[in-house]
Amino acid sequence: MSGRLVGEVIEWLRTPAAKGITDKERIVLLTIADRVLDESTREMVRFKSDDCKLRERLCQVAGVNSDTLKDVLQRLAERGLEVRVELGRDRNGRPYYARRGRDMEFKLPRFPASVRLPVREDMQDGEKEAGKAGEGPAGDRHGGRDGGEDGGEDGEERLRACG
């Protein structure tokens, strides 16, 4: 089960949505994905044979201390990738993820299915405006750059060239 989710993380990391994500953030996502047994909950589990808690495992694998891990988790949350399991809310309505006597829990978030692609620098101003409006030749939302009518390579060929 975890192999499929590790693959999902890897494929998401290849998208423009993952631009700017740090190596430590990548490692945290992959480590959580590796320990998910139930795809419906996507929660990271601790095995009976584990010699440490989940938070300690993330610190060890990412090569960070507890304070740095907190920063990594916060940056992921700011990107919309909340990996901490909320345990409740305080008086002010703020979520908390840890408390005395309860280990911190983690889950693999759902990744965004699509993103707004950045405008290419080599496009002319008119093309940029058409791209913003989502208009292109023959209703193509990619501004004709998918290799359709203009004789370029098709998407399948581009994928093969990538691997």
What profile does the largest beta sheet have? 2 strands, antiparallel
Biggest sheet strand line-up: 1-2
What characteristic shape results from the CA principal axes? globular
Give me the number of helical elements.
6
Mean pLDDT: 78
Low-pLDDT parts are 130-163
- CA-to-CA gap between the ends? 24 Å
Order of helices and strands: HHHHEEHH
Count of individual domains: 2
- How helix-rich are the residues, as a percent range? 25-40%
Give the tally of β-strands: 2
Judged by helices, strands and strand pairing, the structural class is mainly alpha
Rounded radius of gyration (Å): 20 Å
Strand share of the residues? Answer: under 5%
Protein described:
The protein folds into two domains: 2-96, no CATH class; 125-162, no CATH class. The protein is 39% helix and 2% strand. It has helices at 2-13, 23-34, 54-62, 66-78, 125-133, 155-162, and strands at 88-89, 95-96. It has a two-stranded antiparallel ribbon with strand order 1-2. Strand 1 (88-89) and strand 2 form a beta hairpin. Helix 1 runs antiparallel to helix 2 (23-34).
